[in-house]
Design a protein that fits this description.
Arginase, Chain A; 2 domains; four-stranded antiparallel beta sheet; 29% helix
C-alpha cells in the first residue's frame, strides 16, 4: 500500500527470535529491516501507536505495543490462512494531532481496501483518530467501547483519554449513529452521563449484566463498525497493566470472549486495544492476556458466517410479531447459517440511503420472546427513536 510506510517504523529483530516453528510470529508478514510488508490479500493489519501524551492517569502506556507483540508472536498459528500483516509502529508526531493524522490516514486506506486495522495503543483517545478515518467513507457508523466508565467529559477541554467520546459525539460533520459501552461500573460513573446516554438513545451494559449473561453483549458487538477496548475494564488481578485498573472488572476469559464476539461480527471493520502500561505490569501478565484477546479476535474473524450486512435475507427465517398495545409490528430474522437474530426497524421515507445500514438491528432470542409476550424490546425502541 503505497505511501503508508512513511508513518511507520520497522519492528526489532528480537521479536522474531527463538520462536517455535508454528508460532504466529513465523507466519505474519511484518515490517522489519527487509522493508514494508505487502498488504494485498491481507485481512487484518496490526498497527502499533506509541502515543500517550493525552492520557489521563496512565502516563507510560505508549510503551505497550512491542511488549504485547512479544507474547502474541509466541502464540500458535491458526488452522487456515489468516492474511495477517504487521505494519509496525506509528511514532509520536510533533503534536498529538500529527499522530492522529497518521492513524486516521492509515486506517482509512486499510478500511477502503477491505483490511481490518487492529490498533495496539497507546492511550484510548486514539479511538478518535480511528473514528475520523470513516469520514472519507461518508457513512454513519456504530461505535462500541469496553470500559469501566464512559469517557464523556467536558468538550471545552483539550481531547484526552477521558473525554474523547465527547469529541466524537459532537464532531461535525456527525456520522455517529449509535454508541454503546460494555462493562461500566456504576459507582465509577457520574449519573448525569448515564442520563445523557439515555436521552441520546445510546446503550450501556453494566459490568454485572455482562458477567451475569455475557451472551447479551454479543448483539452490541455484532452491530459495531469500531470496537475500542480499554484494558482497565479488566479486573486488576487478571490484568494489572494499567494505572486505572481496579479490584472489580471483567475476568480474563470474559475479555477474550468479548474480543471473539467482536471478531465474528461481519459488520466490524476496525478494533483497538488501549491503555496497557508496561510500568504497571507484573511478570508480563497483562501483555500475555491482551495477546490472547487479539488471538481470539483473529480467530473470530476466521469464523465469520457472512451474515448481515454481507448475507442475503434469503438465508434467514422471518418471524412477524404484532404488538397490539403499541400498534407496532416487529419483524425478526433468524440466520439459517449462524442461528443469530436480528430485528427489522423501519426507517422514515426518503432516508433509506442514510440509515440503510442501521435498521437491521442485531438482537437475541430473548428479544423475540419478549415481543411474543407483548413487550417492546428496548433495542428496537432506541433504534426507532434515532431513525425518526
Amino acid at each position: 500500500m503505497e505511501g503508508l510506510e512513511v508513518f511507520f517504523q520497522p519492528l526489532g529483530a528480537e521479536l522474531f527470535e527463538n520462536l517455535e516453528k508454528e508460532a504466529l510470529g513465523n507466519v505474519i508478514n511484518a515490517h522489519n529491516e527487509q522493508g514494508f510488508p505487502e498488504t494485498e490479500g491481507a485481512k487484518i493489519a496490526i498497527i502499533g501507536v506509541l502515543e500517550d501524551r493525552n492520557s489521563i492517569g496512565n502516563s507510560g502506556c505508549a510503551s505497550g505495543p512491542d511488549a504485547i507483540r512479544s507474547y502474541l508472536y509466541k502464540l500458535f498459528e491458526f488452522d487456515e490462512e489468516i492474511g495477517l500483516v504487521d505494519l509496525g509502529n506509528i511514532t509520536p508526531g510533533e503534536t498529538t494531532n500529527d499522530t492522529y493524522y497518521a492513524v486516521k490516514t492509515a486506517c482509512s486506506e486499510l478500511i477502503k481496501a477491505g483490511i481490518i486495522p487492529l490498533i495496539i495503543g497507546g492511550s484510548q483517545d486514539i479511538t478518535y483518530a480511528n473514528y475520523s478515518a470513516y469520514e472519507d467513507l461518508e457513512q454513519t457508523i456504530n461505535l462500541v467501547t469496553v470500559d469501566s466508565k464512559l469517557d464523556v467529559g467536558d468538550n471545552d477541554e483539550d481531547i484526552s483519554s477521558e473525554n474523547f467520546m465527547s469529541k466524537i459525539i459532537l464532531h461535525q460533520p456527525n456520522y455517529l449513529f449509535n454508541y454503546s459501552n460494555i462493562g461500566h461500573q456504576r459507582y465509577l460513573q457520574t449519573p448525569s452521563i448515564l442520563e445523557l446516554m439515555e436521552k441520546l438513545h445510546f446503550e450501556t451494559m453494566r459490568l454485572g449484566e455482562v458477567t451475569g449473561n455475557i451472551q447479551d453483549a454479543e448483539p452490541l458487538l455484532r452491530n459495531a463498525d469500531i470496537v475500542s477496548f480499554d484494558i482497565s475494564a479488566i479486573r486488576w488481578a487478571d490484568c494489572p497493566g494499567s494505572k486505572k485498573s481496579g479490584p472489580n472488572g471483567l475476568y480474563g476469559e470474559e475479555a477474550c470472549q468479548l474480543s471473539r464476539y467482536a471478531g465474528i461480527s461481519d459488520k466490524l471493520t476496525s478494533v483497538g486495544f488501549y491503555e496497557y502500561n508496561t510500568n504497571n505490569d507484573i511478570a508480563g501478565t497483562s501483555a500475555h492476556l491482551i495477546a490472547q484477546m487479539i488471538w481470539c479476535f483473529i480467530d473470530g474473524v476466521l469464523q465469520r458466517k457472512d451474515d448481515y450486512p454481507k448475507g442475503s435475507k434469503d438465508s434467514y427465517t422471518k418471524y412477524i410479531i404484532d404488538l397490539s398495545a403499541s400498534k407496532h409490528q416487529i419483524v425478526f430474522y433468524k440466520s439459517d447459517k449462524s442461528d443469530r437474530w436480528w430485528m427489522d426497524v423501519p426507517y422514515p421515507a426518503g432516508m433509506k440511503n442514510r440509515y440503510e445500514r442501521h435498521h437491521f438491528v442485531p438482537c437475541t432470542y430473548n428479544d423475540y420472546v419478549q415481543a411474543t409476550n407483548e413487550e417492546m424490546p428496548d433495542k428496537w425502541w432506541k433504534t426507532y427513536q434515532k431513525l425518526v
